[in-house]
Amino acid sequence: MTSDDRIRALEAFGYTLSEAAFLCLAALHSGYFLRRQFRRFANASRGYRDDLLIEKLLSKKHGQVFTSGKKTIVYHLCSRPFYSTIGQPNNRHRRERPPFAVKAKLMAFDYVLANQEHRYLAIEEEKVGYFTGELGIEIDLLPIKTYSSRKTESTTDRYFVDKFPIFLTAPSHQPVVSFCYIDEAVIATPGFETYLKQYM
Asked: What is the pLDDT of residues 163-186, one digit of tens each?
């Protein structure tokens, strides 16, 4: 699906164009969002428009709300039908994450919202397709994680599981690929070093 296809599919639920475009971005890049992020995206003031979006989101059971440790209200897009509508029924952003991971997802989404002029490779298929198809990189060289099934002996390979923003910058005939690392601030985890080794 293209971005336009996804937005039109969400509009069919009753979301406005700006609401659908925002929710599409949030679902693909984070799974979590804050009201201030919607207001920034829609150039809206506090009140009516963000209230209306949240009312729709919760009444349609497309998301849930929770309060973080610092009393920040966070919204999580967690509905399988919602993700199925945008062609991503198994997107891992649907899953609940611990607070430090939610913070990193919100930071990543802030980055995307602040730099919307770039062409983002938002989902695994786009990333794998670009690097193997357009750049001719062997798939074995891409960052990978293998997951084992709890019920069977089968395994599943997933690429770019950190889901940090990856985007292309001009010129369009030979774009530069840029990678964004989000520090989760978990001191016990040498995250950046691991990230560099995976992406080397």
From this structure: 899 999 877 678 899 999 988 776
